[in-house]
Write a structure and sequence with these properties.
The structure holds 2 protein chains of 2 kinds. By secondary structure, chain A is an alpha+beta fold. Chain A is built from 7 helices and 13 strands. Chain B is an alpha+beta fold. Classes of the chains: A alpha+beta, B alpha+beta. Strand 13 of chain A pairs parallel with strand 1 of chain B. Chain A: This is Helix-turn-helix domain-containing protein.
Chain lengths: 246, 181
Amino acid sequence: MQIGSCWFDINSKTLSNLGNDTSWKMPAAEFSVLEILVLQRGQVLSREELLASMPEGQQELAQLILAIERVRFYLGAEHAELLETVDKQGYLLHSAPKSKIRTTSSIPFGSISAKHYFIFIALLLGLLWVINSLFVPAVKINSVREQVIISHSSKLSFYPVFSSEEVRMNHAIQIQSLIQTIETCRQVPWEHLFLSISTEDNLISMVLKRGVSAGVEVKNLKIVPLDADWHFIDESWLVKVGVCGE
Amino acid sequence: MVNRYRHLFCNGKKFWILLSSLIAIVGLCAALHLLFVPEDNVSLSCSADLYSKKPNRDLSLGLEIETRGELVTLKYRFFKSGIEKNSMILSGKVSKLDLTSMSLKLELDSGQVISNLAQKGLSKHMNTIVDASRLAITNGTPLTLGIHLLELDEKNNYAIIQFTPDDGIWGCDLKIHKLPF
């Protein structure tokens, strides 16, 4: 039976190295250990099982370890790994040698040197920094519900802003009147209108917004209402303050 | 003689080296973020035309909000015919930042009023603002205001904000000062 570059003859209890054409007449302990490993090749055998196979009087752990080492020595450095020590379980005789290429998983740095390892880490950190600094997106938020006002020649997105539903309800008539007035405008040069009413000083706030060639134009209006019904806000007034075009 | 513990030793060493590297990278990123990534300093600059029944009155208001870290300054200005007549500066801190509702809570604990000597008094509108602020601050408790972001566009450098509790809204020029990493 082939074990690496050796031939194991169970009948003659001999292990022959075909590479250097030598033979080893195996002592009883080494033979019994190798025999049971060969017969259960590919399976892990516990130390107890191996000790049980050894001749009486030699069933000691130190003897077993010595036998294993002597077999490995005879197999040679190239094939000694066929007889593997499995941690906390026992020993295993492989059918074929493991790959000669040591992977990263088997030794600390594997196929890469420590210098390459730290260069890799430094590059990874640099990449994280570049991604963070270059690809942070600009923030755009629009969280207000939109209504649409259609005037004679344009469309205006209208956003009434109230943190209190009570204030909204209290001014519903005035807001509706404002919308109807805007609808009568010949032209509305704005695209968006935000409206709110300051509860503390009863100030009407309007924010007008439109896109221009340079980006976005924003205009603020603060209006002191002189009557509760906002009757002063008519088309001419809207034209004078710039909400409607002429 | 074969080192029977080599396999165990190598696997254990490999594991701890990789784990240590990972912990070091995460720790370094966290430390850098805490130490060097600042809260962005934000400046909002807003201006409004003030109208009543007579829309030809040349009155305007200015509002500037500046944050530096957790400190905040509000400057409210009143103009007539383009000349600043009065202003009020309130200072305090950002006590809460709620990213879910995109709102800030400000606690303003100090303020001053600056008036043009040629001005005989504050306008009615400024009086209202100053009185409300004075009442809160002189009582020993900070004036609490909220700023809710209705619209924010970093690309076009503007933001539309809503003050709470009074619901005043402003469209403002936005400047965010980001410190380099």
